[in-house]
């Protein structure tokens, strides 16, 4: 029998919510989330106003301290995991509860943002029912969703004897190398879990309904090195001088555009440097080039991003790209190499089942059913390192827009909605 519960009136919501098929304990959990809505936004504001660009290690640790204090208060055993100094990353926050009741859960978030200390992007700024700021939706909002869901469960006495691990990484936006070191602790936690949930931002469909992520494309890269014959510019196109490195690089990239594109496959040449002297610093993502207009360029370096749904698609793209690179213009040569960063997250029956249960929890709480967002629409995320080992779901954090841009913002009310969904879902998984 369905029953309706009158929603608490908060500054975020002055409407009546219909909660379907919620138990008395679940109704209490919902009430605890709503009672904390204003305080939750205060926690988010504190974290957003600390710059935590990936390379700002002190800032990443400071944000970690904010969330570590909250998790300590909820009875979790917390620790900070430092990374090797050579990796140049701040480390990760891990919190655990040991218990034997229900499913063993791994909850993932990240502390870092793409905005380094010299970023002109503003910090916390309210704009009506939305707020903008550094990492407000990607993904400090998601971290707050985790904290508030767990807090509501704690207040309802529903965390006792549960087995839950929380890991907030300090380098999701630019994972430290080697990945088998920077993600070793995460994978170890996944192997001791039944389900992994990640709290990257919730994507809305065309009708404005919330979705979740059951599959994500890989994040990998390519490096193109092109060589030509340096000489006087008046000789360009001649048999003696050839076409030069810049024209050859342009031919290759346009060949990719014309012959490699297929659904859910993207390749983006993010940096290109050409001239007679070229240098690129991978660590700083910066480069230099020297050349003169009356000299044929003898070198071009291109650094790019390559994303695919599965290894079959990856191998097909690699083969086509290598073939295009091999068709050199006269007087030129080129080579291409590929590197792997984030593995793809395959759409599995297990992931779809987790989505089904999450959607039911949302619908029962009067927040609507949740559909799967097409895998090709999501970028890479930490969930992909654990998805091969455990049933997984991502994209269940706060709702915002403009991630990684000066206009990154967040819908304030989405923190409450996501925390309610998450708290009810975790409660049911851990019974």
From TrEMBL:
Ranges for domain Peptidase M20 dimerisation: 214-330
One example GO MF annotation: metal ion binding
InterPro entries, A to Z: ArgE/DapE_CS, Bact_exopeptidase_dim_dom, Peptidase_M20, Peptidase_M20_dimer, Peptidase_M20A
Signal sequence, renumbered to the chain: 1-19
UniProt superkingdom: Bacteria
Cofactor: Zn(2+)
PROSITE patterns: ARGE_DAPE_CPG2_1, PROKAR_LIPOPROTEIN
Keyword tags: Hydrolase, Metal-binding, Signal, Zinc
Record keyword Nucleotide-binding present: no
Protein name, UniProt field: M20 family metallopeptidase
Taxonomic placement: Bacteria, Pseudomonadati, Pseudomonadota, Betaproteobacteria, Burkholderiales
